[in-house]
# Entry
Amino acid sequence: MIVAEKLTKIYPGKRAIDGVSFEVKKGEIVGFLGPNGAGKTTTMRILTCFQPATAGTASIAGFDVFEQADEVKRNIGYLPESPPLYMEMRVREYLDFIAHIKLVPRSERRKRLEDTLERCGLGDVQHRIMGKLSKGYRQRVGLAQAVLHNPPVLILDEPTSGLDPKQVVEVRRLVRGLAGEHTIILSTHILPEVSMTCERVIIINQGRIALSQPLRELDGGGKDQQNLILEVQTAQDAAAALRGVDGVRAVEGLPSPGQRRFRLQCELGTAVRARLAAFAVQQGWQLLELRAQETSLEETYLRVVSAEGGAH
Amino acid sequence: MNGITAVYGREMRSSFNSPIAYVVTTVFLLVVGLFFMTLLRNYLSFDSFYRERLVAMGQEVGPADVHQYLLRRFIATLGAITLFVLPFVTMGSFAEEHRAGTMELLMTSPVSQRSIVAAKFLASTTIFLFLLLLAFGLVSILFLHGNPHPPSVLVGFLGVFLQGESFLVIGMFISSLTRSQVVAGIGGLGAALLLWLAGLLGDPTSTIGAWLNELSLVAHFEDFTKGVLDTKHVVFYVCFIFFGLFLTLRSLESLRYR
# Structure
């Protein structure tokens, strides 16, 4: 659905992105992750035809962003970093304007408008002036603006930046709700956001793609093993004993008071956890914590970003 | 020309939702009204002064030429007032969109840049025409109580209109370069003033001075105030307006490379 090939953008004196290539399949939600200034916004601006690339090509739904800009614009919904609102307008009036400039056919306008108001939870504020709305609502109007004409591709630039935690949760839920029908690229520098909303992560650093992988392959750092976190209370040398448990491949001590917290690299499946619990009881240890380490996105991110010369 | 009506409609609504349009209208009416009143009073005292004398000398005379002694001056003044008022009509046209980030919305929507420029130009023209209508209201009083020559008045207003449209495109172009309405307003006024008085920049007897005078907006305005319609001047203004619109369009396109 979205194909970028060797995109390069050079601003006077600065190479914003350099040979960025990636592909997003239909219906996928991709998290575009990177430190500030890594080139996320630049890439998105190229994809939305706002700025042309210095070199390289990109296409959306089969249309080239440079040669067929009009078709591309019809097929995307774009939420820039700050929602593009006319503060003196009312929500409904604004969305009606959007329906016009996004060329929603007259017969569908009303229906699309009502659908979008409901979907984005804006029914209650539709007659309010946008300048008087809270930031969370403004962000929702921004999203509504992007999805109103029901485009197959959504490009969202930091949809949750500057919101309070409750609003963040709401916006994420909204974005998740859009998945399936739409192909979505969302950029962020907040790691949990990606693990919560996306299926795949593209990490961009200093203008280059540092990693592009489905999220579940990141869990546990590989395809055939998982990481478990175990904390016990005991006087014995737990690490050595744990290595003997069937299915445990490696044991790594984690910093904690008394050094009784470990990360275990284990084979896949829940059986290992059951065996570990039984083993702890059998040894007479007090089991304080035993869980699968859900994601190692943070580690991957830090590894990738710092390996390439550090975050900004 | 898709979306042109939508952008135009939004522009008009936003003009009348913001205080700027009302302030501009009020100030314009106040200043124009004051000048009209003063010119009218001058005309009347001039008229009665000379008529008394001539009648005393035993000559039968009609009233002094209302175009020559009143309307011509009024139209010239009106042209000068629009110079100071219109930059404030256009200052927000693009600067505000840049500031609010809505330019990104327009540029990533299937609306051509040409339509955006056209819609904004039409919107500011509408406001300008509204102002002209108010000014015409004052002049219409003269039709009730005297007999000005209608074609001359119309030619005069055509001149004010064409010159004003030139101020509007200058203002729009300056507004497209900045994200600050204040800069756009003052810059637009400065640029308009400079082009208005371009003739003063050079020695009028030299070649360059003559060229500069030809570029000067006010130099082409004078014949209109006399009630003389010369296609040369009409063509000049029309070219100027199109060139200004073209520059504005280029400026929008250059956004993509900034």
